[in-house]
Design goal:
The chain is an all-beta fold. The protein has 1 helix and 59 strands. It folds into 2 domains: 347 residues, YVTN repeat-like/Quinoprotein amine dehydrogenase (Methylamine Dehydrogenase, Chain H); 309 residues, YVTN repeat-like/Quinoprotein amine dehydrogenase (Methylamine Dehydrogenase, Chain H, 7 Propeller), CATH 2.130.10.10. The longest helix has 11 residues.
Length: 693
């Protein structure tokens, strides 16, 4: 049965009128793996990219930005946000095919007839867009350029499927091997048509690339397939131009003229793993290739004689004059990083784009003696955000992220200027009465290697590093509401510590439970620690259904809760309320949302929510100025949604709609302290979203 995901204009209109909210990305710029790019061969301004965990985008040439196409993916379909392949239809310019599935599980081949606005599932199949192996290879989907009714789709574990009736029905082709289906399955990663020969009105030759197996070929329009003798064992990408098959593979670059193979690997890179491939459709003598490895400065080459000779371009090639970065925070080594895909624009001779670990790069003079490259990442937001906090003054927002550190954001629309040099930032807080004082925890790797404290006295313009207590990693911190020297730290899997000199030295607290924050990695969601936002000597810690409190700035702790509330069931969020002493809310994910107004002694359950995985506070509604706005994300009536309350949870209004479902998940929330109704959402691969009336 087909699954239709159609967002009608009427549904959108009603949702917009009810919610009254607009949603957009807070600009960061790139930051995640762009694994493929495609330009329509006959219609100008049809360009798309796919990513491993952050959806797919269409280029808007008028606005000069990329537009996310999968915001409709909700929590029940969360796996669909990873894209494992894509294809265009030469004869239908508005058609786009995507192989959706971040990991093995819920996945399928989807088609859009309107450039990605609405989608239909054509085939349920297993994909692995975030697969550690071969997510950069492809493409596993192809449409016959001579007959749009014929579609091929390679999968990770189920082999090759074919439809001859425009996707209505599918046949699994047992004559083609399924490829590697064990740990890190690669399956079938490439399908390529050769329309130079015609069989019954459709392309006579089809090539199928299978990593570790080789290339299978049909010469009878897909009736039969057999192994192509002498083909590379592990093809990465393939392209046919004028009947010539070009292949990048695990040991170089080759081409097949229909009767013989020729090794055209650049001599300086003999035996290297190549992936990226782009051949000029009007002249197959012009082509580009790139090595592929999990590092920076992957070597790239161009040839104007069909691969007989090559010129090295890129980071160490003489022909690159300048590299311009739209987002100035991008490090200089973010260049040809794990390069995935290359493409030449048929409508702009000399225009060349490539994708890699962090985004898209472009030059308009790839065949020139010199060239300037610039990023083309405006609109692509694929960062994985771990934590957010919005202070009442100074910066607009602070973010902590995986892989790219974290930022001080000054504007909704400008690129952030400051970037934390460490790769992972996972906890941030500020002094409520002096928000220029900020503290954060960061590390150099997901496992918490080199965990440290960093502090700022100027709203994040500059930072000072300090060591955490000996033997500790990961964890959470909280800053006193009134004392810019007092910081409390809960070690991952360990004890509670406090510092009276901003991290210069630490003392272990007494009376606090051990292990309130799990010792796993930066993905840990135990946000168990918070400082009271009024009383600078008071801190709270949640463990096993009990709130422990300190009234002496973290030195000693005691259990306060008289009747335990449930334990966490997923995400844990302990959040205190600005301007309200002794008030804290605890989100227990699958076990709901609770509120205390007496410092954790007793709690009231907010029965509106079945689950709550995100909770935070922002500027009060002008109509009720003494009550901060509450934002919460969770399940209501069996459906996930984002809600706002202006009366401490007595009533709630949903503020997202069917077209804004937070497809990368909601990892953290922060209400804006200066703009009523604005909320920031940390996602697991779609950057920082914000919504506002």
């Amino acid at each position: 049965m087909k699954l239709f995901v159609i967002i009608s204009f009427l549904t959108l209109l009603v949702a917009t009128l009810v919610a009254g909210y607009q949603w957009d990305n807070l600009r960061v710029g790139g930051g995640g793996y762009v694994t493929g790019i495609a330009i329509h061969p006959t219609t100008q301004d049809r360009m798309y990219v796919r990513t491993d965990v952050g959806g797919a985008y269409r280029w808007d040439s008028v606005a000069s930005k990329w537009i996310q196409l999968l915001d409709w993916v909700g929590p029940s379909q969360a796996n669909l946000i990873g894209v494992d392949g894509m294809a265009l239809d030469k004869n239908y310019p508005d058609r786009l095919y995507l192989a959706l599935g971040k990991n093995l599980g819920d996945g399928g081949l989807y088609r859009s007839e309107d450039k990605g606005e609405t989608w239909t599932r054509l085939l349920t199949a297993q994909f692995n867009g975030n697969g550690r192996d071969q997510r950069w290879g492809g493409e596993p989907i192809a449409v016959d350029p001579l007959d749009s009714n014929i579609i091929y789709c390679g999968t990770r574990v189920q082999g090759l499927y074919r439809s001859v009736d425009n996707g209505a029905t599918w046949t699994n082709l047992a004559s083609v091997p399924v490829g590697h289906t064990g740990t890190d399955p690669t399956g079938i990663r490439i399908v390529e048509f050769d329309p130079s020969t015609v069989v019954s009105g459709h392309s006579g030759k089809i090539y199928v690339g299978i990593a570790g197996t080789g290339i299978y070929r049909s010469t009878d329009g897909g009736a039969t397939f057999s192994a192509l003798s002498g083909a590379p064992t592990s093809p990465r990408r393939m392209q046919v131009v004028n009947g010539i098959l070009f292949v990048t593979h695990s040991t170089g670059v080759s081409k097949w003229n229909g009767s013989a193979w020729t090794n055209i690997t650049p001599s300086a890179s003999a035996g290297k793993d190549f992936c990226g491939l782009a051949v000029e459709a009007a002249n197959p003598l012009k082509l580009l290739v790139s090595e592929r490895y999990s590092s920076f400065n992957n070597v790239m080459y161009r040839s104007v004689d069909g691969g007989s000779t090559w010129t090295k371009i890129g980071a160490t090639g003489a022909v690159v004059s300048n590299k311009f970065r739209e987002a100035q925070w991008w490090p200089t080594n973010w260049w040809e990083a794990a390069t995935a895909d290359l493409v030449l624009n048929p409508f702009a001779p000399g225009q060349f784009l490539y994708t890699d670990w962090f985004g898209v790069w472009k030059t308009n003079t790839i065949w020139g003696s010199t060239m300037n490259f610039t990023t083309q990442v405006r609109g692509i937001e694929e960062t994985v955000v771990l934590t957010l906090t919005a202070p009442p003054s100074g910066a607009l927002l602070f973010s902590g992220m995986a892989d790219v550190g974290g930022f001080r954001h000054q504007s909704l629309t400008d690129w952030p200027v400051y970037k934390n040099p460490k790769a992972e930032t996972f906890s941030i807080d500020f002094v409520e009465t002096s928000p220029a004082f900020v503290a954060a925890l960061d590390a150099t790797d997901w496992d918490g290697t080199n965990s440290r404290l960093i502090t700022s006295t100027d709203s994040g313009s500059t930072w000072t590093a300090a060591a955490l207590p000996s033997g500790t990693t990961l964890g959470r911190l909280a800053y006193s509401a009134t004392n810019n020297n007092r910081i409390v730290y809960v070690a991952g899997g360990g004890s509670v510590y406090y510092s009276s000199n901003r991290g210069v030295s630490w003392t272990q607290a007494t009376g606090a439970p051990s292990g309130a924050v799990g010792l796993t990695d930066i993905w840990n969601r135990d946000n168990a620690l918070a400082s009271d936002r009024v009383d600078g000597a008071k801190f709270y810690l949640f463990s096993q259904g009990i709130i422990y409190a300190s009234t002496d700035s973290g030195a000693t702790w005691a259990a306060k809760t008289t009747t335990a509330i449930p334990k966490k069931a997923g995400y844990l969020n302990v959040v205190t309320v600005p301007g309200k002493a002794n008030e804290l809310w605890v989100g227990l994910d699958g076990n709901g949302l609770y509120r205390s107004t007496n410092g954790g002694v007793s709690f009231t359950k907010i029965s509106f929510f079945q689950t709550c995985s995100g909770i935070n506070f922002g500027k009060a509604d002008p109509a009720n100025p003494t009550v901060p706005a509450t934002f919460a994300y969770g399940k209501v009536g069996g459906v996930y949604g984002m809600y706002r309350s202006s009366d401490s949870g007595a009533t709630w209004t949903q503020i997202n709609d069917a077209t804004h479902q937070f497809p990368c998940g909601v990892k953290s929330l922060s209400g804006d302290r200066n703009t009523f109704g604005r909320v920031y959402v940390a996602t697991g691969g779609c950057g920082v979203l914000y919504g506002q009336p």
